[in-house]
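RETRY 2/3 - previous attempt timed out on the joint model. Re-submitting the same 671-residue input unchanged.
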Amino acid sequence: MGAYAVRRVFMLLPVLFGMSLLVFSIIYLIPGNPAQIILGQRATAEAIAEVEKQLGLDQPWHIQYVDYIGSLLQGDLGTSIKTDVPISQEIFPYLAATVELTIVAMVIAIFIGVNAGIISAWFHNSWFDYTAMVFALIGVSMPIFWLGLMEQYIFSVQLDWLPSTGRYEASSVIDPITHLYLVDTLIQGNMEQFTDVAKHLVLPGIALATIPMAIIARMTRSSMLEVMRSDYIRTARAKGLTNFWVVYKHSLKNAVIPVLTVIGLQTGLLLGGAILTETIFGWPGIGRYIYDAIQYRDYPVIQSGILLIATIFVFINVIVDLLYALIDPRIDYK
Amino acid sequence: MGKQQDILHVQGLRTSFFTDNGIVPAVDDINFSIHKGEILGIVGESGCGKSVTSLSIMGLLPQAGKIVGGEIFFQGESLTKATEKRMRSIRGNEIAMIFQEPMTSLNPLFKIGNQLTEAIHTHQSCSKEKARKRNIEMLELVGLPRAEQLLNDYPHQLSGGMRQRVMIAMSMICEPQLLIADEPTTALDVTIQKQILQLMKELNRKLHTSIMMITHDLGVVAEVCDRVVVMYAGKIVEEAPVRTLFKHALHPYTKGLLASVPDIRSKKDRLQSIPGNVPKPGSIDKGCRFAERCEHAMERCFVEDPPLYKMETNQQVRCFLYDTETKKEASHETTIT
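RETRY 2/3 succeeded.
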């Protein structure tokens, strides 16, 4: 297992290399000259040359790339053109906001999705099964921005139960420690703020959970149906085990691998910043951050943001791979 | 046939499958008993209802299957009327079952030790250490070497024969009164087959467990069974002590089966076979189900359903050839010609 993990992580290197190369080449793909963008339309040729020299843009591309990688490895993600703040400092709160929302959304999606899938499979072709699968189909095909707007209209505007935008009430001030505000308020023992933060998470959390939940439910159902037909499930029942143990121990563990794959992919997608959802709910997440950077042509932010998201995505996949091997002893460590 | 010394008594059992294409009777009015300590063979081609019979006893029929008539008595207690909770306490504890496919019958994701312990803990409360000792004891009893290490192995690390031994150990771990073995050796190669059969016979002798041996292989029957029930298309066509059956089979179907067993001493090029195919369940609504394939079929066979005739040789047979009336006519004919 240990050797397998090491090997799997090593296999990341070429992927990360390719990613960095792609991201690096963004500078050359963006129309116009970065120095020009920084200085504005009326900059003189000398000023532009001066800035290019500062940024190292006068060097040949491979030297620029080596410099870029070198600074990345030192944790230097560049400096935002817009704010002139190092990106590594600036990006963290945005990333934390997205991570917090993703975790909440995925917990909802996994809990409801997996259980709905199991019950649907167990009561195959029952009314529960049909209802759940119709909802799953609706969930998969629902435009999320529309769902978000409807949630806001019903629960914020009409019923006034939940706040519609932001991470917490504008009037309160939260001292950031981890920037995961649920954690921060809990550490500080401020329950009032904790419930406020939790309330703000509900609507965007549900909106973001919808698609993963539907996909997870469908995947769990089909995977469970297949497993429940297998011989070892019959053996488990012939031993006199209760249905609960047959389902949650013997079936679920065997059925979970394709479900894990889906969970990993969906988590990666959500962490990539759901730009639409974050915009609707005024969520200061990484999707919004990059979206703003694109509007401003803040190319170092775009580069680093994309690189960060891609890296997270790849690492989640590695974690999923390691989980496979942890669950199934037959998955070879070669 | 007193119910007292019978461990299992099946009475008029009918099991049907409710499919989109209508109701299919898979087992149609069968009666048999298993005595204490006996090994009963149930023989027949695939689709004759042997496995459905065993799953009916275990209460493990697939969703579409339902017992629509008759009763099953286990030590005098009706299983068809038992609650699901009672059935669970019987399964694995008093009636255990092993299956045809050792390769897929063990859960691939749990260690052997875990699966064995689970079988104990489902029915008995005992300490982990005691369960472990019992596991090792059982693995040794079924002839597996290095039992202690095996507990930490996963099923995929074992061969088919070893897995079937583990299955047997698992099924016997609570010392059940009755073991239902559904083609336990079909998927194994011949030498392993022989070992597994011997093992089962040994366990039967040592622990006095009754065994219901379901098979399509007459060789298996000859090797281990005391008594045999022959099934054809959901019905019992013949029942006999094993020696009697091999020496003196009565039903044309049984005779056909025996004739199609290859004989190493025979110089014939071709094996005998019974012409035609097993009728689809539910496709014959009157007459003997074997009539179309039977060389002795009379007019009557296509119209009337033959009853089980009790013979003096402790045999029962479902064939008009053994109707005393028919017999008289037949002997009459032969004397004339």
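The two ends of chain B are 42 Å apart (CA to CA). Closing ticket.
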